[in-house]
Amino acid sequence: MFVVVNELFVADADREVFERNFGASMRETLSAVPGLVGARLMRAREVGRGYVSMLEFADETAYIGYLESDAFRAAHDWPDHAPIESNILSTYSVIVDVVENVRP
């Protein structure tokens, strides 16, 4: 698995708009991306940290395909978005993956 983590820093005044619009963009543009295993937007609980957008791909080839896709262009051209002040993008190769069975 190949994971892309983007920490996004947003002004406090723009948080509500950012959450609404970034989340909507993810739902609208990512659902049919080949090789995308999961996508999450997370809000930090610690002061001074940014939001984290995490995309999990089957492999690096799927990620590269996403970067070259219409879905990527659409995700980065959504209207009425809240300004992102800065970001830190990191990519990871999964070494160990432990998944716990969740039973009802």
How many E-type strands?
Answer: 4
Largest sheet properties: 4 strands, antiparallel
Distance between the termini: 27 Å
SSE topology string: EHEEHHE
Described by the principal axes of the CA atoms, the overall outline is: globular
Radius of gyration: 15 Å
**Strand composition percent:** 25-35%
Low-confidence stretches: none
- Portion of residues within helices: 25-40%
Q: What is the average of the pLDDT values?
A: 92
Task: Describe what this molecule looks like in 3D.
The chain is built from three helices and four strands; from the N terminus they run βαββααβ. Strand 2 and strand 3 (51-57) form a beta hairpin. The model has no long low-confidence stretch (mean pLDDT 92). Strands 2-3-1-4 form a four-stranded antiparallel sheet. By secondary structure, the chain is of the alpha+beta class. The longest helix is centred in the N-terminal third of the chain and has 16 residues, at 15-30. 10% of the residues are buried.
How does the SSE layout of this entry go?
Blueprint: E1 2-10, H1 15-30, E2 36-42, E3 51-57, H2 60-67, H3 70-75, E4 84-93
Antiparallel strand pairs: 1-3, 1-4, 2-3
Summarize the structure.
With 104 residues, this protein is an alpha+beta fold.
Key phrases:
single chain, 104 residues, alpha+beta, four-stranded antiparallel beta sheet, 4 strands, 29% helix, 32% strand
